[in-house]
Write a structure and sequence with these properties.
rRNA binding; elongated; 2 domains; tRNA binding; two-stranded antiparallel sheet; 10-stranded mixed β-sheet; alpha/beta; 368 residues; 12 helices; iron-sulfur; DNA polymerase, domain 1
Length: 368
């Protein structure tokens, strides 16, 4: 087996202090009891955090002042805003967050006519080493905690509710497509998914059908996720259908080849009933050739099935100084046509925020 220049385990750096969002309901009651308070205070605290989207104990006026002061230890600051940028007339807002140890992560909140969506990070940096990705170029700092992942969503939900996108909106969609490889931080990502999807007061009450988890193709983790009983959409960052090029574009391909990844995608679709999304960043003169479109359509039809898969073409958002560039529009259109000719659904993703460094890792790179 080929030796990989990849880091699947994050460096052993300290995670932030224990937070309410790190704990399941039973553990919350135990934590509150350890503070010398009755167990029902855990439910009250959770109702504020998950239901009212506040982490400020001073706003929890149904709690006695002394209890608020004590319970504040379960709501330590996790992700502090460093900078915020907006574009698309305020419909796209990118946040750069700093953890307790200085680690940086990003999220992007976006308004669409029928929904509000947040793209969140699962790691500070990324160890997958994809050369066209700004996050991959920066390397992996550490995993984010469950609480750090959930708090990105809570703050996005509060911002959308309070009109940050121009008018009050309810956050309904979450994509784990920010910094990091979610399935390389498996335990904490799955715990975060349970907090996000559980109804209040146990969680944020967001439907799993509005959540997408991306991966570069960690086959064993895909199979494990399929058995979790969480019908979230799986997005596989494939980027090319041939092993020779994918070994370079997505180095994890040296461990799990295209066929193995697509077989895992089929198993996931069968287990969850959810159509898998195939993410494909279209790069000029690299992976945009007509024969690759034909091969992609053929492989998806044969190994996954046309009813179980959808191709999401992504016009590349080039990073400063990069040799990579987006494919011309006629090339993009021909690629779409050829994939569709194979009977596979294929659309082009709506690009947002190019003028505010909205590609993963671009904003963090300017603040290192």
């Amino acid at each position: 087996m080929t030796s990989l220049p990849l880091v699947f385990e994050a460096p052993r750096r300290g995670l932030p202090p224990r937070h309410l969002a790190d704990l399941d309901p039973a553990d919350r009651k135990a934590a509150v009891a350890d503070l010398g308070l009755p167990g029902f205070r855990a439910d009250q605290l959770a109702r504020h955090y998950f239901g009212r989207l506040t982490a400020d104990v001073d706003e929890m006026t149904d709690l006695p002042a002394a209890a608020r002061e004590t319970l504040a230890s379960l709501l330590p600051p996790l992700v502090t805003p460093v900078t915020e940028q907006s574009c698309d007339e305020g419909a796209t807002r990118k946040m750069l967050w700093r953890g307790h140890d200085g680690a940086l992560a990003e999220s992007v909140l976006m308004a669409y006519p029928d929904r509000a969506t947040v793209c969140i990070s699962s790691q500070a940096g990324c160890g997958m080493a994809c050369p066209f990705c700004a996050t991959g170029q920066g390397g992996l700092q550490r995993n984010l905690s469950t609480g750090e992942i959930v708090d990105q969503v809570r703050q996005a939900a509060a911002a959308a509710r309070d009109g940050a996108l121009g008018e009050p909106m309810r956050l309904s969609n979450i994509v784990f497509m920010g910094m990091g490889e979610p399935l390389a931080n498996y335990k904490r990502v799955v715990a975060a998914l349970r907090r996000i999807t559980s109804p209040a007061p146990d969680g944020l009450g967001i439907s799993p059908r509005g959540i997408t988890v991306s991966t570069v193709g960690l086959v064993q983790a895909i199979d494990k996720l399929a058995a979790e009983g969480l019908p979230v959409t799986l997005a596989v960052s494939l980027h090319t259908p041939d092993d020779e090029l994918r070994d370079t574009l997505v180095p994890v391909n040296n461990r799990w080849k295209v066929g193995e990844v697509l077989d895992a995608a089929r198993r996931y679709a069968q287990a969850t009933g959810r159509r898998v999304s195939i993410e494909y960043a279209l790069i000029r003169d690299v992976n945009d050739q007509p024969w690759r479109a034909d091969l992609l359509g053929k492989l998806l039809r044969q190994r996954v099935g046309t009813k179980r898969v959808h191709v999401n073409l992504i016009p590349l958002n080039p990073t400063p100084g990069s040799e990579w560039d987006a494919s011309p529009r006629p090339v993009q259109d021909e690629f779409v046509r050829r994939v569709q000719a194979a009977g596979v659904a294929c659309t082009v993703r709506d690009t947002r925020g190019q003028e505010i460094d909205a590609a993963c890792g671009q904003l963090a790179a300017t603040h290192r």
